[in-house]
Amino acid sequence: MISLDTWRDGWVIFKKELRGDRMYLIGNVIFMLYLAFSLSVMMGSHSEAEVLMKPLSDFLMLLLVPLTGFFFSRRSFNYIKEDSYTRMLKYYRTLPIPITAIMKGRIIQLFMALIFNGVLFYPLFFWFSSNLRAEMNIGQFIVFILTWTGYALLINGVFIYFELLKKGRTYLWLTISIIVLVVVITVISHFLGTSLVMLLVDYSSHFSFLSPLMWGALVVGGLGFFLLIKITKRKLIVRDLRS
């Protein structure tokens, strides 16, 4: 049975966090606008520049799309210096707030960020990129968005796991590891003569809502996220915040 009380508590936590970092939302908006414009320029490159721009667009999409699951905040910028996520958990443990409410607050934050940032990023990306508009209609572009959303869910599940269970420096090493992995995937894709972004464009435009990549990404991303959240919740209950 779903506990409405813990979901309400989760909303309270989410709104408290958002009110405390309202000024950071301005940077959030600017970053999404910049990202949409930069990627659209890369997608529209031609001739010799295309050899560099296609792998670079793959790299940036793989690296930055998961960030649509974040609201920029003081805590996210200070997690190394202050171990801010652990400090947050220590604070909440002094209050009569169940672990389930903390987890649900973080899940609410993720999905609200995906919606807020997605509404900013994807339409502008589509609008700025004449190449995308030539290849896909609105419905096919929605398929493109859903494919990347499945990927973003999986990676954000990993981020939440490390955010709530590990120290700031370990979280930093996770970030570095993901960057290295993205570089490796991009290089392999480039030497195989393909572009991940263009592959998703082709599948989205050809198969539309029957795209196997879209359904595969949503199933794998959704199940992976669900399992990671379950594991994180179980371990968070017994986490020793002193270590």
From TrEMBL:
Q: Which UniProt keywords apply?
A: Membrane, Transmembrane, Transmembrane helix
Per the record, the domain of life is Bacteria
Q: Where are the transmembrane segments?
A: 23-43, 55-72, 107-129, 141-164, 171-193, 213-232
What protein am I looking at?
ABC-2 family transporter protein
